[in-house]
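fyi for ur records
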Amino acid sequence: MYKRPAQSIPWEINDPPADLTEYLEAHGGVRGVALDIGCGTGNYSIYLANEGFQEVFGIDFSEQAIAIASERAAGAGLAVTFTQGDVLALDQALSGKRFDFILDYSILHHVSDKDVPAYVAQCRKALNNGGKLLLVCYTEHNEFATGTNGTGKYGNEIFFRTADEVRQLYAGFTEVSYKKSVLGKRGQHEAHSFIVTK
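which gave:
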């Protein structure tokens, strides 16, 4: 997919989402170390670096996406660390690094029911005490949903969860806020938007 022109990639969105910009407006002050999970070509990682985070890390499974992200950050004169790796093995891929802010934007709904408990546990381990995680994922009200899962436009399996199901998964965190949001280039997908803290 990342060998295609950027404008043809459905999740390639240059501007930071309102969920992220509103979070930074509401939680100003010292900005420490940030992690962008499933960073793709680095648009949001670069945004975080420009917004004053001391260090920014991005991880994605696609080697091509990481190459593009690294080139973009270098071109902007920003020291963002991009890693090709499995988001289901964060601790290993990031050598045990800990973070003050984690962005999970449109990733959770790609994690299977079997893998999601371990994924959530890894996020909790990676987050410093007092750190915050911004989570935005599809709701159960989605054109591709057939019950609790479905097949996306490109044949990928997607897992749809209610807000209460997400709360149960992240019960080891403290919920700071919740709102309904949207995902997609056209804002066509209903989404949950949570901020949780450790």
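The first strand starts at residue 33 and ends at 37. thats all i got for now
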